[in-house]
Amino acid sequence: MQLGKRKRDVLAATVDMYIRTGEPVGSKTVVKMLNHTVSSATIRNDMAELSAMGYLEQPHTSAGRIPTSAAFRLYIDHLMRKRSLSEKDCRNIDGLIKSAGDDPERLIGEASQALAQTTGCASVTTTPSGQAARIRKIEVIPISSRSAVLLLATDTGIIRTRACRFDRDVDSRAFEVLSKALNDTFRGSQLADIGLPQVQGMIGLLGEYGLACVPALTAFCHLVQETVEADVFLKGESNLLRHPDYDPVRVGRLLDFLTKREVLADLLSAIPKGLNVVIGGECQRPELEGTSIIVSNYNLGGRPDGYIGIVGPVRMDYAAAIPLTEYFAAAVGRALDEMMGIDRDNSDK
Amino acid sequence: MQLGKRKRDVLAATVDMYIRTGEPVGSKTVVKMLNHTVSSATIRNDMAELSAMGYLEQPHTSAGRIPTSAAFRLYIDHLMRKRSLSEKDCRNIDGLIKSAGDDPERLIGEASQALAQTTGCASVTTTPSGQAARIRKIEVIPISSRSAVLLLATDTGIIRTRACRFDRDVDSRAFEVLSKALNDTFRGSQLADIGLPQVQGMIGLLGEYGLACVPALTAFCHLVQETVEADVFLKGESNLLRHPDYDPVRVGRLLDFLTKREVLADLLSAIPKGLNVVIGGECQRPELEGTSIIVSNYNLGGRPDGYIGIVGPVRMDYAAAIPLTEYFAAAVGRALDEMMGIDRDNSDK
DNA sequence: TGTTAGCACTCGGCTTGCTGGAGTGCTAAA
DNA sequence: TTTAGCACTCCAGCAAGCCGAGTGCTAACA
Lengths: 349, 349
Hints:
Two copies of one chain form a homodimer.
Chain A: H1 5-21, H2 27-33, H3 40-52, E1 56-57, E2 66-67, H4 69-79, H5 87-98, H6 104-119, E3 122-126, E4 135-144, E5 147-154, E6 159-165, H7 172-186, H8 196-200, H9 214-228, E7 232-235, H10 237-242, H11 248-259, H12 261-269, E8 275-278, E9 291-300, E10 303-313, H13 318-346
Antiparallel strand pairs in A: 1-2, 3-7, 3-10, 4-5, 5-6, 8-9, 9-10
Helix pairs in contact in A: 1-3, 1-4, 2-3, 5-6, 5-13, 6-13
The first copy, chain A, binds a DNA duplex through residues 24, 26-28, 38-42, 44-45, 47-48, 58-64.
């Protein structure tokens, strides 16, 4: 660290103040924040150097200074003092997550909502990735003589269904054969390994019913496909509008960006495991200029899986938001594991 | 109609122009729009009278005039010339809706998205109401010895699932008994008629398994409850931000209002059947000040069921948006009917 | 009676000019 | 290395003034 103690204090104070007010911070303000231990001239010198080093910049000659992305980076990684959560906060969060019942997707949704609300930002979460999930059960449920529902259950607790329709009446025996064949072939398989070829290869196993079952097999492919792709939840968008740093145009662009699920999924998947902060200018997307993303994996069965995080202005309260995001990620992981724990132990018995 | 022909033309021209520009409209502008058939002084007289009648108002003495809610009402109900959709538009919409596959909920979602995009407003839609839906099939699918999934299929094509968990191992025979009992008791029942008492009454039917099945029965209650409540989709929120009439605060309040599903459901259910336009000031909600809602039922099996509509600034292009909404409602109804048609004819055989 | 031309009047929006204050950089002294 | 002092910069905010769009009224006209 080539920065002296006082310069670091100055920088930390500047960032703190800027986060609080959003206005350029002047030397006198910093003096006050450092309890008048030095004079404003000293601070001015320090700030001039910090500017030269790329940590601060001035909107114009006679204004105070605002922190650059580099300053935020340094602040987050080394200068900031995280505010730890109170017992009560933790219990609130745990309670809220517990209340989601037995459905993982709903749990993620609720957690996303709650995180958005407590941080005052928008939140982004993904459901557990289906990539590594294994099929625990497939069920074919006849609805009428010409339609059925396929149900897929994974070992990560995800349940998905898809309807399919036939152009002629189907023998109820066909559903049984299909169900057995699907389970025999795919139970225990990773979703990612199942593709069109594997499914097409099944037609032979169905004997006389092969042709009749084609619509169901197509539906099965879609179903697997859908389950592999993690769902993305975006909540609390309107929080962004309340923030003075955002003008409508910016929020509009940002929301458009965030609602493109694939792009967002891309962005998330490029992020290393653990808790990450992406600061506006750092990533090459113009839509994210001026916004930061705090995102963390949550673990599922000991492995990093989906993401939970928040999206807000660069000038957000990292000292509170980061611990919150961490706690939410941990709590979601715990809850999901618990949700699955019982099954894990007893499955396949 | 106590308004003379020319006054109506003047009012229509004023509203047209105001919708286009958002600026107060002056007498000269109207003269131009009426092809100089009369002088500006005449128009001024007319506009003064229209002001007196409550159709126009001035932001200040020396400005043009802007239409009141009453003017918009009259415009929409009698003055406006709807722009009919081109063949191509219709085909585009139909194609888009067809592409949604066999799932009613997805279809509604896609339609909502498309309507938002074509109108440049936000869109609000509800899935078919479960209120009048009847149970076609209930399935209990064991996942492990301590967990199962309940699946509910209605005659309106809706499929819902819910997981449930038991604190001890459950005999697989119990699932069969439960499944049979549920189907025997509730198949053909309207969802709205199923409540806690009915479900509790079932415990007796389950004999020795009654106690073990309690978690499943609880889950069943929740499942019915969830299915009765129509889902509300809100799409294209960011479109609102692009509109110059909306400042962030307003959009924020509006979005908060729209994301409260219950409130929104209330608002919709208070609306008469068919196509409706609710103009900002008309309804008593302060959040809706300055915004209009165009909403229509779609029919399901000949009966009015869910809603599809858009939310946008009072100053929106009604002449285009109203026919679009009508067409979408009709198309969604048709597609849903078709989706269910085959089943209808063949069910219960 | 309805329409029109003419005219005086109103009033918000824009431009211009000015001032105060916050903040800076530099210099010289401690 | 720190500090006090000073000249300089530049924005925010205010006041004054002009411009122009639009109005209402009146008197004449068809």
